[in-house]
TrEMBL record:
Protein's UniProt name: EFMT1 methyltransferase
Keyword Methyltransferase annotated: yes
Catalytic activity reported: L-lysyl-[protein] + 3 S-adenosyl-L-methionine = N(6),N(6),N(6)-trimethyl-L-lysyl-[protein] + 3 S-adenosyl-L-homocysteine + 3 H(+)
Name of the gene this protein is made from: Eef1akmt1
Protein localization: Cytoplasm
Organism, scientific name: Chionis minor
Alphabetic keyword roster: Cytoplasm, Methyltransferase, Transferase
InterPro entries referenced in this protein's UniProt entry, alphabetically: DNA_methylase_N6_adenine_CS, Efm5/EEF1AKMT1, Mlase_EEF1AKMT1/ZCCHC4, SAM-dependent_MTases_sf
Any one Gene Ontology cellular component term annotated for this protein: cytoplasm
GO MF terms, alphabetically ordered: nucleic acid binding; protein-lysine N-methyltransferase activity
Lineage of the species this protein comes from: Eukaryota, Metazoa, Chordata, Craniata, Vertebrata
Domain of life according to the entry: Eukaryota
Coiled-coil stretches: none
Gene Ontology biological process terms in this record: methylation
Family matches, as PROSITE patterns: N6_MTASE (PS00092)
Amino acid sequence: KMDDDDDDIPQLSSHTLAALQEFYLEQQQREGMKTSQGFNQYSIGSIEEDWQLSQFWYSDETASCLANEAVVAAGRGGRIACVSAPSVYQKLKEQDGKDFSVCILEYDRRFSVYGEEFIFYDYNHPLNLPENLLPHSFDIVIADPPYLSEECLQKTAETIKYLTKGKILLCTGAIMEEQAAKHLGVKICKFIPKHSRNLANEFRCYVNYASGLD
């Protein structure tokens, strides 16, 4: 047992590691090291999932598909809001598009590294939003409520309806189909979203407009 050199190496707790990771990410942001050494602050996974916050990132393919759908739906010069859907936001930013603008509404303050496009958002206070976030100022709102409960969906729906000019793209569990129709008037799409890790619950997309997801 004494031969095992690893016994003498102190192990960092997962909490400490997460804090370190957050610190280094912020440091890289401050120093403008966005692309050095292959680091891309917008790549999915650059900020790790926090399961305690019910975070599950989409697969790269799904995030790309949803981002492309949002760009088409928003139209040239359109505004896109990502509510609790950071991996779609990241994929939109990866595109470096000049024909649209996007912001991220998110509870997890680690995403504040994205600067002015980050808006702290707690679904428990659906209309507690900055004054400069004007009503009906987004061409499309993409939302992925963190919990599969009617309360969470209903409160997130208040935010969505406040922000959108009309178009809504909702991602949530298949079991929420009835509630999604009730609170947002959205219908299920044929497209099946996938996550980078398999979820126990079947996941679906819902829209209230003629989309490319069918």
